[in-house]
Amino acid sequence: MIRLKWTRAWCCVVLCTIVISLMSVNPVYSAPAQKSVQKPAADTVGVARITADAAVLMDVVTGDVLFSKQAHKQRPPASTTKIMTAILGLELGRPDEIVTVSPKAAVVGESSLYLDPGEKINLYELITGALVRSGNDACVAISEHIAGSEEQFLKWMNRKALALGAQNTHFVNTNGLPRKEHYSTAYDLALMARYGLQIPQFVSITRLKETEIHFIEPDVMMDLRNTNKLLWNYPYADGVKTGTTTAAGKCLVASATKEGRQLLVVVLNAPDRFGDAKKLLEWGFQNTETVHLANAGQIMSEFPSVIEPVSVFIKDPIDVSLSKVERKNLQTRVVWEKTTNLPVRAGERLGRLEIWLREQKLNSMPLLSENEVAEERSLIRLFPYSQGNKRE
């Protein structure tokens, strides 16, 4: 049976997308604080024609969208769904946990690891099988092990998607098999993949060209080969996931790093998905750049207190990715929010620093007070000879 399973498994096509959802009632499910992400701009001109029905090019570090085409159009995501499934598996489980395959997981069809009921395998190996070979059955096994049922796991997936800002996504299964109410967008998938690329184990798995996984019971090995051909034909590629169904067409979420800068591309319903991804990535590397505007903790301005100016700083560094030709049109504006001058507390938010590109606001960062100014102290300075403060 195992030999037969291997033979069938060698023929499967990788289709995977993984989704992780965190329950707001439990701190373990809370996504870490992130910088506000630039909303996708209109379709960028100057990019070579692509075949994709929808596409997004994003800077992984800043989250800025460099190119978009129908970025918010809801479409079947196919196996790119497994990106979120893997994220949840990695965040909510331990790599060495032993998963026992259920009868339900074993009968899932299409792209598969051809799991049998009762087989045992480590969670990390199972996640590898889901991401690299796009095993649909592996996704169900992961969800049942983590949440007790695929239905509960799906609730977490959808909550996690919303927490990441993916507002046009809804999952009804863990693997991306076609269902009417199962959809996402190019922009939402970019947000999820960007989050996944912050998880070291996710990065390690999705960049693998070939690998093998080990089953505990029975004690056998299975060879895996990644369906992301960009890993072979584009030297800077380092992830993420393919997806293909009749309804979704050919899809790809891919990342690449060149000269220390990492970009992320999503192409949906793209007959030439690998060609499209390569064109967009190369365009991004050649025609866009990341501009460093400020360091973490840098003093940005002075709040006009009635007594003395108060220095204000930003907590996080400011980096903006944009077209090289647009750099000269990048501006910052200080907007004060505090209505009464005093008192001022150290660390109090007094305003915001806005980053603008022409007439489009790209981002906004809070401006915090470096020191405090007490109201009592200020009144003494205003009226130094008032009663109780006369000079002798």
Q: What count of domains describes the coordinates?
A: 2
SSE run: HEEHEHEHHHHHEEHEEEHEEEEEEEH
- Summarize the biggest pleated sheet: 5 strands, antiparallel
Level-1 CATH class name of the largest domain: Alpha Beta
Look at the structure and give the mean pLDDT: 86
Q: Name the overall outline.
A: globular
CATH architecture of the largest domain: 3-Layer(aba) Sandwich
Distance between the termini: 102 Å
The fold-level CATH name of the largest domain is: Beta-lactamase
Number of helices: 11
Q: Biggest sheet, strands in spatial order?
A: 2-1-9-8-7
Poorly predicted ranges (pLDDT <50, ≥5 residues)?
Answer: 1-45, 377-392
CATH superfamily grouping of the largest domain: DD-peptidase/beta-lactamase superfamily
Structural class: alpha+beta
Radius of gyration: 25 Å
- For the secondary structure, the number of strands is 16
Beta-strand level of the residues, as a percent range?
A: 25-35%
Helical proportion? Answer: 25-40%
Task: Please render the helix and strand layout as text.
Blueprint: H1 2-9, E1 54-59, E2 65-69, H2 82-92, E3 98-100, H3 103-106, E4 120-122, H4 123-132, H5 136-147, H6 150-163, H7 186-196, H8 200-206, E5 210-217, E6 220-225, H9 230-233, E7 237-245, E8 249-258, E9 261-268, H10 273-287, E10 288-294, E11 299-303, E12 310-313, E13 318-323, E14 330-336, E15 349-357, E16 360-369, H11 375-382
Antiparallel strand pairs: 1-2, 1-9, 3-4, 4-5, 5-6, 7-8, 8-9, 10-13, 11-12, 12-16, 14-15, 15-16
Structural description of this entry:
With 392 residues, the chain is of the alpha+beta class. It folds into two domains: 2-287, Beta-lactamase, CATH 3.40.710; 295-378, D-Ala-D-Ala carboxypeptidase, C-terminal domain (Peptidoglycan synthesis regulatory factor (PBP3), Domain 2), CATH 2.60.410.10. It has helices spanning 2-9, 82-92, 103-106, 123-132, 136-147, 150-163, 186-196, 200-206, 230-233, 273-287, 375-382, and strands at residues 54-59, 65-69, 98-100, 120-122, 210-217, 220-225, 237-245, 249-258, 261-268, 288-294, 299-303, 310-313, 318-323, 330-336, 349-357, 360-369. The strands form four sheets. The protein has a five-stranded antiparallel β-sheet with strand order 2-1-9-8-7, sandwiched between helices.
